[in-house]
Amino acid sequence: MNKKISDFIKKKNKTKLVTLTAYSKNIASILDNYCDLILVGDSLGSVLYNYKSTREVTLNTMIEHSKSVRMGIKKSLMIVDMPHNTYRNPKEALKNAKLIMKKTKCDGVKLEGGKKIINTIKTLVKNNIPVMGHIGVLPQSDKTFKFKGKKQSEKENIMKDAKLLEEAGSFCMVLECVQTALAKQVTKSVSIPTIGIGASNNCDGQILVFDDLIGLNPIKFRFVKKYANIKTEISKAVSKYAIEVKKGKFPSKKYSFN
Ligand code: KIV
After folding, report:
1. At how many degrees (to 10) do helices 118-126 and 90-104 cross?
2. What is the pLDDT of residues 145-167, one digit of tens each?
3. Which residues line ligand 1 (CB under 6 A)?
4. Which of 179, 202, 239, 244 could hold 249 in an S-S bridge, CB 3.0 to 4.6 Å?
């Protein structure tokens, strides 16, 4: 197994794992100082492109953003989301995952789902492609973003899926919008790290969409804590620029060629 991946797994039960999404080089190069893993998430479909869902994101879009992110990362693991309809069967998944790995030089891919995609995950792992699983709320296929784990059937399915992902050789898994007690149970019962988003602090690590964390994305989710209000900072800077341009103050001599 890739050393970076095995080091990541070894952090389970030792230290909490810090992970975030990035869609471009400049942001990735900042996050790289603090993160164990950076995900090029297909959330970029809604965050950057205003798509109604992540289902509209294409393989090419993921590859182009990932090439940019790659340039900003020196130490963190870099994982790329496989978009909707690019892993409908093991053969298709392998072809597309190989393309993502080759073009973006990432360390692995993320796929959404449990039981239904277990053979696909096994195929990728057999072909030395590290896989990050993703269970709980699945934005590529779920109609609502309601948290999971209240109903007994949901609890059982999520527990089963977590065990299956581990058995199939995934190196970690995202738990999205999963009830607190269930997140704890899953985290205790698998030997690979669980990475929560809306899944309490009972997970081995956390992930957030970076634009949400800095207050740039207008959408509000209960599980998102805004650590900054970058929108205000950007507005201040752009407003100063606009005033100076209108007054002919920018560019002054300092910024001109004499
Ligand atoms: O697409 C994404 O950004 C994700 C994370 C939020 C887990 O899947």
Report:
1. 50
2. 899 999 999 999 999 999 999 99
3. 21, 39, 41-43, 81, 174, 197, 207, 209
4. 244
Specify the long-range contacts of residues 145-152, CB closer than 8 Å, at least 24 apart: 145/177, 145/221, 146/177, 147/177, 147/178, 147/179, 147/198, 148/177, 148/178, 148/179, 148/182, 149/178, 149/179, 149/181, 149/182, 149/183, 150/179
Ligand 1 centre to CA of 43 (Å) is 6
Closest CA to ligand 1's atom 5: 41
Residue with CA at minimum distance from ligand 1 atom 2: 41
pLDDT in tens, 93-106: 999 999 999 999 99
Which position among 64, 112, 176, 244 bears the catalytic label?
Answer: 176
Q: Report the helix count and the strand count for the chain, using DSSP H and E.
A: 10, 8
